[in-house]
Amino acid sequence: MAGQLIVGLDVSSRARAEEIVALLDGQVDFFKIGYQCFYGADGFALGKDLLRAGKKVFFDLKLLDIDNTVEKGVAAIAETGATMLTVHAYPQCMRAAVRGAAGSDLCVLGVSVLTSMDDADVAEAGFARDTAGLVALRAQQARDAGIGGLVSSPHEAEMVRTIIGSHMAIVTPGIRPAGSATGDQKRVMGPADALAAGASHLVVARPIIEAANPAAAAKAILSEMNTGTRFA
């Protein structure tokens, strides 16, 4: 169960990131490094050090560029031994990422629709579909591109699972355990419900790293997860 929980190191200090990793030792061994940590806390070097220490690392970089740039960037991340990497779920981008990851164990994830967005945000961005429709389209395109999985809201996890089948990962942010604030997330769900809906991995940051006792917060989330596992 612990392998399905990914803790987001959304901090700007390497010292704080390392402190969180140490506090969670023995409970969590999978960590996400996103923009804040990558740029503010020397996250690339931190990620490589975590990998050398036997941890799993998810570089949440949401790559999107011309095909050659994406392919070469993904290949560089694959060389680190990272477990997961995000790209935006545009068909050309995903196909380029698959080429870049070829021959490695890197699981490339396509980001469908950010969990901070709702139907109004999707419409404002110019898409002629609602959130669920856009996620469904991206899921089909991700499956056809042959990438490792998708990042999507837990609210779309069940639908995505029916489209991509059981072999691809579904990584869900927007996880909020009982009693926690939703913050800037608009499509959230509890840990057990997200797993029951079809998620394979849960990303949790603020409810753990901003808790007075991060280890206790992680333990409580793992306990909630134990009541809802469907996909392992």
TrEMBL record:
Keywords: Decarboxylase, Lyase, Pyrimidine biosynthesis
Pfam families registered for this protein in UniProt: OMPdecase
Gene Ontology terms, MF aspect: orotidine-5'-phosphate decarboxylase activity
Top-rank taxon, per record: Bacteria
Location of the Orotidine 5'-phosphate decarboxylase domain: 4-221
Residues at which substrate binds: 10, 32, 60-69, 115, 176, 185, 206
Class of the enzyme per the UniProt entry, highest EC level: lyase
Physiological role: Catalyzes the decarboxylation of orotidine 5'-monophosphate (OMP) to uridine 5'-monophosphate (UMP).
Protein family according to the UniProt entry: Belongs to the OMP decarboxylase family. Type 1 subfamily.
NCBIfam families: PRK00230.1, pyrF
UniProt-recorded name of the protein: Orotidine 5'-phosphate decarboxylase
Biological source species: Devosia oryziradicis
